[in-house]
Amino acid sequence: MPNKWPLVSKLHFSAKMPNLYVFIHPECSCSIATLSELDKLKTRVLNQVHLHVVILKYKTEMNSNLQVQEAQRVVGKDNVFFDEAHLEAKLFGAETSGQTYLFDEAGNLIFNGGITISRAHEGDNLGSQSIDYWIKNRVSILKKSEVFGCSLTETESQSFINFN
Question: Contact, 114 vs 127, CB < 8 A?
């Protein structure tokens, strides 16, 4: 996991405001809870952060329309990136659906973790609170949190919790 923005990344980076990236598995049921929490966070930090969702593509995908549509609704169609070869996930070290990264305008990693309270559950959580607090105050209260979701490194959804 990088401590700075990976310069070889193809993802859009803004030097004008913080950047928040959420990596999701398109078949993980936890992705909907993550996107719901991202939507709530968006209302608190509107116009103060660039929001992006990175959706990994898999050959075994059956029906990812719900997650894709929800991601596009939450962050806008232009801010959803499809990581077909999983190169971005590897660059960032994203291993679990729901993995969220916050970078400041200079490309420094501020937060790495999840924004749900548990697998497929919405609710107040330390990840979202930490991101919200940093964006408003520029002070970190938590730099890492647990990520609850399916593996991004497997071709099929496999449940596990990442405590990186």
Answer: yes
